[in-house]
């Protein structure tokens, strides 16, 4: 069971780093404008995702709920 908790801790740490990079990309894109070489079109991709979820009605709302549930802070151990 110790190996599973270590794997969960690694996955949690990688996810946290990914979310921090996403936040950095959003802020940098908003400050600089346009697409950045390393981050690409992050803001445009997020806007497109929100448009797709909004166009799908109830299915989009359910998908949004699942996305929020996946990124909610939960205990990793």
Explained architecture:
With 77 residues, the chain is an all-alpha fold. The chain has one domain (2-71). The chain is built from three helices and no strands. The N and C termini lie close together (11 Å). The relative contact order is 0.11. The mean pLDDT is 80.
List the helices and strands and how they pair.
Layout: H1 2-32, H2 42-55, H3 58-71
Helix pairs in contact: 2-3
Shape: flat
Number of strands: 0
Question: What's the tally of helices?
Answer: 3
Biggest β-sheet strands, sense, barrel: none
How many domain modules? Answer: 1
Kindly estimate the percentage of residues that lie in beta strands according to DSSP.
under 5%
Order of helices and strands: HHH
Low-confidence sequence ranges: none
Mean pLDDT score: 80
**Helical content class:** over 70%
| Radius of gyration computed on alpha carbons | 16 Å
Q: How would you classify the helix and strand content by structural class?
A: mainly alpha
Distance between the termini: 11 Å
Brief sketch in words of this structure:
With 77 residues, the protein is mainly α. It has 3 helices and no strands. The longest helix has 31 residues.
Defining traits:
77 residues, mainly alpha, 77% helix
